[in-house]
Amino acid sequence: MPYPGTLDVDLTGATAVVTGSTRGIGRALTELLLASGARVIGLQRGTDSLGPGHTCLSVDLADPAARADAVDAVLADHEIDILVNNAGINLRHTVEDFPRDEFSQVMSINLDAVVHLTQAFGRPMLERGHGRIVNIASMLSFFGGVKASAYAASKGAVAQFTKSVANEWAGRGVAVNAVAPGYIATELNVALREDPERNGEIIGRIPAGRWGSAEDIAGTVLFLCSGGADYVHGTVLPVDGGYLAR
Ligand code: NDP
């Protein structure tokens, strides 16, 4: 490794909420936040704590009432400094056959939950005059894809939501940004990686010549939570091995 290690960010005393903290990108990020000294409250259905400093609340983010209960429970005991809206799903159908309930489910988890949690955790951040919010978008925030109408619609909306909130909150101490991952090897895309032909096609289109890792995304989110990103507002930052540069 020519550039070993990661950012040396001290988040001692900070409390972060990370949705989807137990698997994939959210898990790698939670491990990095814990290593940086932050406490992490994970909101997802699973409840497996990663260790000291990591508390899990079981919540189905598709359910607005469950989201509201989780927000109340968190805010009753904690001041939140960092919110990472990471949890997301991808359901794939051609648009003419997309069941409306499945389309709504994608929008509910990938977009409505992001809006809801940004409002709920953002208000106290605005009152205190500081906070960081990072939304996990996607390359499909920038373009569409086959069988991706719901996912791309949700992620495109997350990107524009991020920029709009930043317009309102950048001058009030709360930095709102998004990271747009490219192809990242997680449970979300096991099927693609297990198909040798598809896997070869994908790697062939990535200038870096490999799938990204969850840690690649986590490091960028940590940067956006650090003092080094004080003047970064409303960006949707691709972390994609150069995919969008082609
Ligand atoms: P994973 O499938 O590995 O993890 C998804 C996480 O979301 C899990 O922790 C899961 O927890 C949580 N989650 C899913 N559904 C719900 C729900 N209904 N309620 C609460 N939590 C839920 O995904 P990734 O780590 O790959 O993806 C993380 C984010 O990155 C997503 O927003 C995804 O769209 C985005 N992304 C990923 C890319 C990739 O290539 N992997 C590329 C571009 C963007 P649980 O099941 O316990 O509820």
Automatic annotation (TrEMBL):
UniProt KW Oxidoreductase keyword: yes
Listed GO MF terms: oxidoreductase activity, acting on the CH-OH group of donors, NAD or NADP as acceptor
Transmembrane segments: none
Keyword Oxidoreductase: yes
Domain Ketoreductase: 14-182
InterPro entries named in the record: KR_dom, NAD(P)-bd_dom_sf, Sc_DH/Rdtase_CS, SDR_fam
Keywords on record: Oxidoreductase
SUPFAM superfamilies with a match to the protein in the record: NAD(P)-binding Rossmann-fold domains (SSF51735)
Annotated family: Belongs to the short-chain dehydrogenases/reductases (SDR) family.
Name the UniProt record assigns to this protein: 2-deoxy-D-gluconate 3-dehydrogenase
Species of the source: Brachybacterium alimentarium
Lineage: Bacteria, Bacillati, Actinomycetota, Actinomycetes, Micrococcales
